[in-house]
């Protein structure tokens, strides 16, 4: 799949024809500040390959108090360890800075970082917690959970010595999922009441897609209509547009940095990498060598997200993790997730692939001089 650069957010300049040249320059500079600062000019850090690095993994999940058993493949009995040794190497002349957790904690000192989305966002959140914990193992931490009536569950970890708070907020759809007076579950494509919980964060990482294909509602409400169901791609588009309007209305004039987690591929169809029909990620222990070895079709989420982000006033950086993750058929939890069925080719082992997603996030935030 062709990648067209790091920052996949553009301003609709046609809607801003009355803006001064100085204001336009300021907007462009804001976008530049959000780009992953990989070493090398004209870089696309999302083009590359996985290489063995003896210094990997960046941490031992057994020493991380924040990773759940569903993601801790080694704890759940995965016998091989080669999948832990791969580092993402962008094509020359690019390179990613090595993750420096202490530098990131200092950069975030006194700040609040929120991850908002589904369990694939949890994958990235818990990976980052482990990376930070390994970098500052002596730092005092405090973990808490919240789940009150009318509000979505959340998890909070605070690195006390740095005053850094990292929160995961459960939101499968990034729009409201509520109950009506009759007790029926309603997906409100135009509802953003839950967004009140996100105000005040200094960094926001959003992600949503998988749950749109699960019917966890009785009705869908939007545009003054109520239906039992609708085309899920259309529903996702409407929901994401509502989210984008909320971001622009509430964050465009703030210093909050906003990211969107790109499509995280599953590996349920071996034909995507040249294997026989019926083959899945089960038993896979090696990544694909390069992008040409992956034959899967583009996911519709990718085009929708790019289009919505391109029309926003607030700069939002797309963490374009799709291509690099497509190569990692070996990185899923499979049967090593505490589930007796053991067929998970969607979620990722921690330590593992999500560590690279966070290295890209780190590059965007901390620059390439570490």
UniProtKB/TrEMBL annotation:
Example of a GO MF term: xylan O-acetyltransferase activity
GO CC annotations, alphabetized: Golgi apparatus; Golgi membrane
Source species, domain of life: Eukaryota
Annotated keywords: Golgi apparatus, Membrane, Signal, Signal-anchor, Transferase, Transmembrane, Transmembrane helix
Major location (coarse): Golgi
Signal peptide: 1-21
Membrane topology, as annotated: Single-pass type II membrane protein
Subcellular location: Golgi apparatus membrane
The keyword 4Fe-4S is annotated on this UniProt entry: no
Keyword Transmembrane helix listed: yes
Residue span(s) of domain Trichome birefringence-like N-terminal: 42-91
Domain Trichome birefringence-like C-terminal residue range list: 96-363
Similarity field: Belongs to the PC-esterase family. TBL subfamily.
Protein name: Protein trichome birefringence-like 39
Organism: Zea mays
């Amino acid at each position: 799949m062709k990648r067209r650069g790091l920052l996949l957010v553009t301003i609709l300049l046609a809607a801003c024809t009355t803006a001064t040249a100085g204001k336009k320059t300021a907007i462009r500079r804001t976008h530049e500040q959000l780009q992953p600062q990989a070493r090398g000019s004209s870089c696309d850090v999302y083009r590359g390959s996985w290489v063995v690095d003896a210094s990997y993994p960046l941490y031992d999940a057994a020493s991380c108090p924040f990773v759940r058993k569903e993601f801790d493949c080694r704890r759940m009995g995965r016998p091989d360890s080669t999948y832990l040794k791969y580092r993402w190497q962008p094509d020359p002349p690019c390179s990613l800075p090595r993750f420096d957790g202490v530098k990131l904690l200092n950069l975030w000192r006194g700040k609040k970082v929120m991850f908002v989305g589904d369990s694939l966002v949890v994958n990235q959140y818990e990976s980052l917690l482990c990376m930070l914990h390994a970098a500052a193992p002596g730092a005092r931490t405090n973990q808490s959970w919240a789940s009150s009536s009318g509000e979505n569950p959340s998890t909070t970890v605070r690195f006390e010595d740095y005053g850094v708070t990292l929160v995961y907020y459960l939101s499968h759809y990034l729009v409201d999922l509520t109950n009506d007076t009759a007790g029926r579950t309603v997906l409100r494509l135009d509802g953003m009441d839950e967004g009140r919980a996100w105000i005040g964060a200094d960094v926001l990482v959003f992600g949503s897609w998988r749950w749109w294909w699960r019917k966890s509602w009785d009705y869908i409400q939007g545009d003054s209509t109520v239906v039992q169901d609708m085309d899920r791609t259309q529903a996702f588009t409407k929901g994401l547009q509502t989210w984008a309007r909320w971001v622009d209305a509430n964050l465009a004039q703030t210093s909050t940095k906003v990211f969107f987690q790109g499509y995280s591929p599953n590996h349920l169809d071996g034909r995507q990498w040249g294997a026989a029909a019926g083959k899945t990620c089960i038993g896979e222990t090696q990544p694909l060598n390069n992008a040409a070895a992956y034959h899967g079709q583009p996911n519709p989420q990718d085009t929708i997200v790019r289009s919505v982000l391109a029309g926003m006033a607030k700069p939002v950086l797309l963490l374009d993790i799709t291509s690099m993750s497509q190569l990692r058929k070996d990185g899923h939890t499979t049967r090593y997730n505490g589930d007796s069925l053991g067929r998970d080719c969607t979620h990722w082992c921690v330590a593992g692939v999500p560590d690279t997603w966070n290295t890209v996030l780190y590059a965007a935030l901390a620059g390439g001089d570490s």
